[in-house]
Design goal:
Length: about 350
């Protein structure tokens, strides 16, 4: 046994002993450390260079923006440079933390190629618009104009975000409530399933946005019609996932609960709902994706407020920089919403991770 192998074995035994002391199984990151082969000095240096590459690329993007001449009479501010500097500062903070935490270093090393590619895309788009004019105005504004457009309309954008979220969650929660009611009842009762399945087979394959022209005519208000449109889109995946989750529960679970004298309500909330929760969250995630799509369609077609309305409005005035800015805001908003849903799912289904460990 050579010195490197002995060192790796010693490190693995140390991690395993710590896990035993804490009376738990090693985490996935600890297992990766145990299984990792010892690296040579050149490989370690290469990994450090890869980890620092996003910071280097961020500095190069700023240098290219400040030093390279602009095309024609194009005028740019320092907003874009400050934005890139902010992102580069975040990478620098991660790089500093990587010297004190192996876990932070492993995370940075894993994400470094993506961060580098992101900075490279910024540089390429800036070069193709501001520096050379290959992508001409007004259809392709450079990043600095987009960022300034977001800043100029920040108050209106915040109000649009608020209105969009109100509409999104109003329709989403209505669809979730209806989907859980029909899905759980269909899974528990063959009689209910007999009447619900034809409705699912008819409405399920049809996108909810198909009903928009009818909803705009029939609905008493644009807001109420949009809520119904979003709820209809959410209802189908939540219904199918919750019904499938209940049908996959072993029948012996219900028989044991019935033998112990559990009522139907108790079997629903203590047996069916917890066991079907992984499937339900799959439907909730799919429903959120459908809800976001339906929200944008509803706002662009009828609702007189929100981010979709803002995009249509700015496009009508040929303010493409602000239009692109709204698209970026939409992406960030929906990413945050889905991340929050993911955190809730992880919290509710933490027993799955514990069992996996």
């Amino acid at each position: 046994m050579n010195e490197k192998t002995a060192s790796a074995t010693s490190g693995a035994m140390h991690l395993m002993s710590e896990a035993n002391v804490q009376s738990r199984a090693p985490t996935l990151w600890e297992l990766r450390q145990i299984e990792a082969a010892p690296k040579s000095k050149s490989r370690l240096a290469a990994d450090r260079a890869v980890a620092a590459l996003p910071l280097v690329m961020g500095v190069l993007v700023i240098a290219q923006y400040k030093k390279a001449p602009n095309a024609g009479n194009a005028v740019a501010t320092d907003t874009y440079a400050y934005f890139i500097a902010l992102l580069a500062s975040a990478v620098l903070a991660m790089l500093v933390a990587s010297f004190f935490s192996k876990k932070a270093y492993a995370r940075l090393l894993e994400k470094a190629p993506l961060y580098t590619a992101g900075f490279l895309l910024f540089a390429l788009y800036d070069y193709a618009t501001l520096k050379t004019g290959i992508l001409p105005l007004p259809y392709f504004p450079w990043p600095d104009r987009i960022l300034n457009g977001i800043y100029e309309d920040r108050a209106l954008l915040l109000d649009c975000i608020k209105n969009s979220l109100i509409l999104l969650f109003s329709g989403y929660f209505a669809g979730v409530a209806a989907g859980l009611a029909t899905g759980l009842s269909s899974g528990l009762s063959a009689r209910v399933r007999y009447w619900v399945m034809p409705l699912i087979q008819i409405l399920g394959p049809i996108p909810s946005t198909t009903w928009l022209p009818i909803i705009l005519i029939v609905a008493s208000s644009l807001f109420g019609g949009s809520v119904f449109l979003i709820a209809l889109g959410v209802w189908y995946p939540v219904t199918m996932s919750s019904m499938t989750g209940v049908l996959n529960i072993p029948k012996v679970n219900f028989e044991v609960a019935r033998t112990l004298g559990a009522s139907r309500a108790r079997m629903l909330f203590k047996v069916a709902l917890p066991a079907a929760m992984p499937n339900i969250f799959q439907g909730l995630t799919q429903g959120m994706s459908v809800a976001c799509t339906a929200l944008m369609v509803a706002e662009m077609m009828g609702v007189e407020s929100g981010l979709g309305w803002y995009i249509n409005w700015q496009r009508g005035w040929a303010e493409f920089a602000k239009m692109y800015g709204a698209v970026i805001v939409i992406c960030i908003t929906f990413t945050v919403v889905n991340f929050a849903l993911k955190l809730i799912k992880r919290r509710v289904l933490r027993w799955q991770e514990e069992r996996a460990d």
